[in-house]
Amino acid sequence: MFEAHYRQVLRFAERRADDGEMAKDVAAETFVVAWRRLDKVPSGPEESLPWLYGVARNVLANEQRGRRRGGRLSARLRRTTSVAPTAPDHAEGVVTGIHLREALATLSARDRETLQLIGWDGLDAQQAARVVGCSTRAFAVRLHRARRRLESALAHTENEEQHGTLGELERELGELGAGVRLKGRRT
User: In the predicted model, is pLDDT for residue 114 greater than 80?
Assistant: First the structure.
């Protein structure tokens, strides 16, 4: 299972983690959880990958909560001590420069995750529904709405910056492997 799915789980974590090291930690912890719960891991590869994505999603959420708690603690300590402040970490401030990434950033976390599970992680609606813990029908509705909001955000970004056409943005989507449909077409 590790050899078959590690790279996919790592890519899943890299797209969602704050940095590469965090992604590696999340992928490793995902397989530790799988090992501990081996009796709960679905047997088929079509079923085990979505299960691993669900575990990775939970591990990532735990890691991010821990970092937020650590950040709050650091802020509280800085207020109570006279230690010189350290330079801020600019890893999260990476410039996207691509309309797709700008448009995705305007979407809710739920919409981004919905689009990423289908477009970037290559899951079908049934598998993605298992990852987020809802019915296939509910996920299909969520996906439809997320696609509409992405298309609207792309059009808004295009109008604001006067760059290219929707067709050019769709080509960018295809180059990024997003695999989302705009205006009824699959990129």
Answer: yes
